[in-house]
Design goal:
mainly alpha; three-stranded mixed β-sheet; about 10% strand; globular; DUF5319; DUF5319 domain-containing protein
């Protein structure tokens, strides 16, 4: 039997109570099971796809300098939520496939110095882009 690298790897976290007859959440209804979900609109879907693309850029630029992920101010609980790059990517992919966000828990004792906001990451990426663009403009102007 052949085994492929990455086979069986899931983006979703593994439920530690799967198959456990004493699962404490067994009697709870899954949110939204009764009501059909409205699929994401084309605009919402495009926004999530753009967030995924931006996330790749932010991680490529910020991870090498020690940034572990992004912090997002939760509208529901008014608390900051700290997301590592892979967790946030998995959450966005889940939103694309299911049409609903995942239930979230605040991280336990994260170091806020290792997380930045979306706005900071966007500004950092824009600054890198502008710096690189200025270098190519200067070189093309020198050829004249």
């Amino acid at each position: 039997m052949a085994w492929d690298y990455g086979e069986g790897v899931h983006d979703d976290p593994i439920d530690p109570f799967t198959g456990d007859p004493t699962d404490p959440a067994a009697d709870l209804d899954t949110p939204g099971d009764d009501a059909p979900l409205d699929p994401l609109t084309d605009v919402e879907r495009q926004d999530v796809l753009e967030d995924l693309a931006d996330l790749e850029i932010y991680q490529a630029l910020l991870a090498p300098i020690g940034v572990r992920g992004l912090v997002i101010e939760c509208e529901d609980c008014r608390e900051p939520h700290y997301f590592d790059w892979d967790l946030l990517r998995g959450n966005l992919r889940h939103l694309l496939s299911s049409g609903r966000p995942r239930v979230h828990e605040p991280a336990y004792d994260p170091d806020p110095d290792h997380y930045v906001t979306w706005d900071y990451a966007r500004g950092y990426a824009d600054g890198v882009h502008d710096t690189l663009s200025e270098g190519t403009e200067d070189e093309s102007g020198a050829d004249r």
